[in-house]
Amino acid sequence: MSPKPLEPLAKKLTKGVIALELLGVLGAYGLFHTMDTSRDFRNTMNRRFPSILEVYYKSNEWAGIYGIRERDQEAWSAKQD
């Protein structure tokens, strides 16, 4: 029995979807890592995309890591003075 004509297309689409998902996960990890290591980048995110920064703070609080938000606010307010 010969393969159905749509099977190669389905395999290509599946590989494409998996590749896109992998890129999305790697991109999210890269963004989280950069926010985790750079207070200046978090300040940029605070000005441009505050909702994304809020997700970062909430995910850390959910994981039991508290105080990042408060330390950032203190550092940013001291920098403005």
TrEMBL record:
<protein>
    <submittedName>
        <fullName>CEBPZ opposite strand</fullName>
    </submittedName>
</protein>
<keyword id="KW-0472">Membrane</keyword>
<keyword id="KW-0812">Transmembrane</keyword>
<feature type="transmembrane region" description="Helical">
    <location>
        <begin position="13"/>
        <end position="32"/>
    </location>
</feature>
<keyword id="KW-1133">Transmembrane helix</keyword>
<dbReference type="InterPro" id="IPR037764">
    <property type="entry name" value="CEBPZOS"/>
</dbReference>
